[in-house]
Amino acid sequence: MKCFSRYLPYLFRPPSTILSSTCHTEADIISTVEFNSSGELLATGDKGGRVVVFQREQESKSQPQRRGEYNVYSTFQSHEPEFDYLKSLEIEEKINKIKWLPQQNAAYFLLSTNDKTVKLWKISERDKRPEGYNLKDEDGRIRDPSTITSLRVPVLQPMDLMVEATARRVFSNAHTYHINSISVNSDLQTFISTDDLRVNLWNLEITDRSFNIVDIKPANMEDLTEVITSAEFHPQQCHTFAYSSSKGSIRLCDMRQAALCDRHCKYFEEPEDPSTRSFFSEIISSISDVKFSHNGRYLMTRDYLTVKVWDLQMENRPLETYQVHDYLRGKLCSLYENDCIFDKFECVWNGSDSVIMTGSYNNFFRMFDRNTKRDVTLEASRENSKPRAILKPRKVCVGGKRRKDEISVDSLDFSKKILHTTWHPHENIIAVAATNNLYIFQDKVN
Amino acid sequence: MINTMECAMDAQNLISISLMKIHNSRTQRGGIKLHKNLLVSYVLRNARQVYIKEKYAEIYRMQQYEEVMTVCNEIQELNPLDLDADDRGEEEHERASCCGEGTSVCGSACQRSAAQPAAHCRTASVLPGCSPLEDGGKEPEPSYYRSCCMETSPVSHCDQFPTNSTHCNKTTVLDLDTHIVTTVENGYLHQDCCCDASQCGQSAQSPAKKRKVEFGCCMSDAEEVSDFTAVRKRAKREDCTYSNLDYTDTSNISNLISIFGSGFSGLLSRQADLEHICSKQAPASLRAWTRAIVAF
Question: What does the radius of gyration of chain B's CA atoms come to, in whole angstroms?
Fold first, then answer.
């Protein structure tokens, strides 16, 4: 396995004005991370509604050791806190999800969403500016036309690179409940936004209407038994999407079948093992993330204790199940009390769909090689991440005698959780969000 | 089935914690999270199921104990025909010790003279300080009812059918819970009407024999009896302690339950099949919780 323990990690610390590690506020907590389709850009969203975009440095012969470092490219305030006067509810500005659109011209486009509103942002560079206007001088002040005696043609002069982000579309007022995910279609014209009970289909050009394609709201809310937790378009089939539920099931829908996709064409669910039934069975079976593999043949789901890989052709049970932190099964009661049991961990595929990764507590994150069935636990921490250092595998001691480098379950820090991770689409570069710090690890360069 | 290791005490705590979470979600920034509250309501439902089952199990245990004591007393009272005076004294002593310490409703029965008619009540639980009849020598009323239960669950009591003679050879007791009529006649027990076919319709001797073996505390072996009574005493003490400490908690939880959902309304009344209750009420209660959440 291409184990990250053999390769160089390095710690990337964004500018302290944005993300401070020593004393951070809640607004600095990273709430989403996403590579774009080329891997050149990495976007993060935080609880304060800000988006920070990093760009990979071009390889430089003069400084080969700095190959591929990510630097801040653009920072902007995507969402502001709002107030719903009708319901007397505050709408959080926290960025729940960011999704990049594939690049079609010089500018970059991304979708960012909070609980209620999706926005399309254009990130573009400006390295030239026009100079020599006739009607205004260089300061921008309007000139008196009567003083103009000659005309000149403005010319573009080089300037310092400026990256500006502008909101090009605002998709609002379509969700009664909290948006948990967005997904761009492979047709590059539409996208879906999903809340607890509904999935809406939008056209990227049209903001004043959307189509509701899934609605699981019961006629009587007292009959509610499950909610939608995540949805994603198939990577190649523009008519297919999947959504996961709080009951641990996944439904695959085909938009060609009907306008309203309430009837699924495939239903993935694993029967519950009655021997493991507990007070918290419903909570730990709730799916927090669903991701199609890059090749479109598999689905990956994350619930509280496991990651499962499903074959789209097999609905009755997962193809593979990986235990992320099964030692927590005996601690569910206290995890319920401190609300950790409600944490929503994400999961990601690597570019070749051979390795999957997900986060855990104590700033640990886990990787599972699907071919060799080997797994590794790594830690994102400053102490363990000196530049050029190799990430050392970590181990949690579940009982018996604890070895020197092991950590016992009771010593785990549950306030340090890695919920959001992302993997470069082509290379072995990962970005891991640990509270308010962003760690970027990459393979050793040969 | 939920892991039995998670007893009623844990269920109570979980119910409290869950209700607090739902309450706190009202003031959370960003509004009520539907997903989280739905999951909390599932925990609440699961905890409630365990809690109710434990309570019913406790009630059932108490009822069984009361039945045992009833039969013991009945046999004792009719004993002049069957038992020696020595044995009688020994049994009365044992029964007194087992029902004593001022914590049992049956203490009064133990003190009663053998000739007096027996009337026993079945209670949901026993409160400490529920004192027995003070003078063992006094004649109790022909029919009396004592309730020491602290819960609102209906309490059955045994009616007494008339027998006025002090040397009666027939006593009939009707259990309103199970509708079993138990007749003791000339030292033999009959069950005139009962659910258990194996007990019904048998000859007079066999149920009596069955009872003899089963309710060994009233019978001959002193050592065996003392162990048995010691166990019973311990169980009763524990029950009383448990009941005493958790009285407030239980009543508070019951109050909270009635405030938050009508789905709980049928559960405190007795029904034959607890599983049936839980399965039927689960969606109803979930609805109630969702209603409560939506109302927020």
Answer: 23
Instruction: For chain B, give every domain's residue range.
Output: 1-30, 43-73
Element containing residue A242 per DSSP (H, E): strand A240-245
3-state secondary structure chain A: CCCHHHCCEECCCCCCCCCCCCCCCHHHCEEEEEECCCCCEEEEEECCCEEEEEEECCCCCCCHHHCCCEEEEEEEECCCCEEECCCCEEECCCCCEEEECCCCCCCEEEEEECCCCEEEEEEEEEEEEEECCCCECCCCCECCHHHCCCCCCCEEEEEEEEEEEEEEEEECCCCCCCCCEEEECCCCCEEEEECCCEEEEEECCEEEEEEEEEECCCCCHHHCCCCEEEEEECCCCCCEEEEEECCCCEEEEECCCCCCCCCCCEEECCCCCHHHCCCCHHHHHCCCEEEECCCCCEEEEECCCEEEEEECCCCCCCCEEEECCHHHHHHHHHHHHCCHHHCCCCEEECCCCCEEEEECECCEEEEEECCCCCEEEEECCCCCCCCCCCCCCCEEECCCCCCCCEEEHHHCCCCCECCEEEECCCCCEEEEEECCEEEEEECCCC
Asked if A279's CB is within 8 angstroms of B14's CB, the reply is yes
Confidence of residue A5 (pLDDT cuts 50, 70, 90): very low
- The token pair at A257 is 């079948």
A237 CB-side CA count, 13 A:
17
Q: How far is B265 from chain A (nearest CA, A)?
A: 17
- Per CB-CB distance under 8 Å, the chain B contacts of A336 are 14, 17, 43
Please name the residue ranges forming H helices in chain B: 8-25, 34-77, 85-99, 107-111, 205-214, 222-260, 274-295
Q: For residue range B62-109, list pLDDT tens digits in order.
A: 998 888 888 888 888 876 655 554 455 444 444 444 444 444 433 343
- Measured between beta carbons, which residues in chain B are less than 8 angstroms from residue A274? 1
Query: Given an 8 Å threshold on Cβ–Cβ distance, is B38 in contact with A177?
Result: no
Nearest CA in chain A to B2: A278
CB contact under 8 A, A224 and B2: no
DSSP letters for A312-333: TT--SS-SEEEES-GGGGGGHH
Comparing B22 with B113, the larger pLDDT belongs to B22
Mutation for A interface: B10, B43, B262, B278, most A CBs within 10 A: B43
Query: Using one digit for the tens of pLDDT, what is the confidence trace for A380-438?
Result: 988 766 666 778 899 998 877 778 889 999 999 999 999 999 999 999 999 999 999 99
pLDDT tens-digit map of A294-352: 999 999 999 999 999 999 999 999 999 999 999 999 999 999 999 999 999 999 999 99
Residues of B contacting chain A (CB within 8 angstroms): 1-3, 6, 10-11, 14, 17, 21, 29-31, 33-36, 38-39, 42-43, 46-47, 50, 283, 286-288, 290-291, 294
Give this complex's ipTM. Answer: 0.89
Residue with the two structure tokens 């970059």: A108
* Euclidean distance between CA atoms A135 and A314, whole angstroms: 69
How many other C-beta atoms are found inside a 10 Å radius of the C-beta of residue A368?
Answer: 22
Closest CA to B242 of B1, B65, B12, B3: B12
The pair of three-digit structure tokens given for residue A23, joined into one six-digit string: 């004393």
Alpha-carbon gap: A252 to the closest alpha carbon of chain B (Å): 21
Contact indicator for B125, B148 with CB cutoff of 8 Å? yes
Closest CA to A326 of A254, A258, A377: A377
